[in-house]
Amino acid sequence: MHVPASPGVLRTSSVARMGVHAVVVAMLSAALLLILDLAFRQPTASLLYTLGAPGVAGLVALNYFHRRDTEEPLLAAIAFTAVTGLVDLALVQVLDGRLALVDPAFGFGFPLLLSFGATGLAGELAPRIFGERMA
Q: Which parts of 1-135 fold into alpha helices (H)?
């Protein structure tokens, strides 16, 4: 017997896709942070990360929201940001507590906040961008 789920219930396939996309955002953001830290001095690397991390989140979010069977933009933004924040904190611990990867002027919070906004914005704009092409 199949019991239809109410509209507010998460779809298992969508949650799995959202999780995969959240991990991709986290890994790409961590890679960006490491590359910028190696290539630039701390304040410059931190500024570039603050600008680049939301771009990474937005592009991956557009890929996630390309299909119609996605969760609400707010839920996806929370998931993407939470996973990215956890990976960033783990990265700091792996690198011997070197919290100096991110300049105190920006910290970890500001890039995560901008990534949250970029993910939500991508979710809101995806239907307008992809229109009828969304499968």
A: 12-39, 42-64, 73-94, 109-130
For residue 40, how far is the Cα from the chain centroid?
23
Cβ neighbour number for residue 126 with a 10 Å cutoff = 21
Contact partners, residue 111, CB within 8 Å, separation at least 6: 29, 49, 50, 53, 54, 102
Question: How far is residue 68's CA from residue 104's CA, in Å, rounded to a whole number?
Answer: 39
Look up residue 4 and give its two tokens: 């239809």
Overall pTM > 0.85: no
Q: Round to whole Å and give the CA distance between 79 and 23.
A: 9
More confident position, 108 or 105: 108
